Amino acid sequence: MKEKRFNIDIVLKKTKRWDFKDLLIEKNIIYCEWFVELNEDVSIISVDVSIEELESLYNFIINELSESRIILPNGTRLQAKLPFDFIKTKLIK
């Protein structure tokens, strides 16, 4: 059975994006990066990930990029300070 994948957006400061992008490359996760025109500080990185991949990325985000936000496929915006189980529950609903 094919594993379920989710398109997740991560909003982070441009100055922090390289560490995150290096992690994505290391884990062989394809990503797209978007820049917000009205705010020079923010970058949005979109990833297509499984729950397991997201948990690994989230652990990095919560420890290294605490000012980041995650946008779930349904548009729900969450601060990267919540327990991963809460985010997992929101995804599976």
Distance between the termini: 20 Å
Strand percent estimate: 25-35%
Poorly predicted ranges: none
The ordered string of helix (H) and strand (E) elements is: EHEEHEEH
Helix content: 25-40%
Summarize the structure.
The protein is an alpha+beta fold and 93 residues long.
Kindly describe this structure.
- The protein is of the alpha+beta class.
- 35% of the residues lie in helices and 29% in strands.
- It has three helices and five strands; from the N terminus they run E-H-E-E-H-E-E-H.
- The protein has helices at residues 17-26, 51-64, 84-92, and strands at residues 6-13, 31-35, 42-49, 69-71, 77-79.
- The protein has a five-stranded antiparallel sheet with strand order 2-3-1-4-5.
- The relative contact order is 0.23.
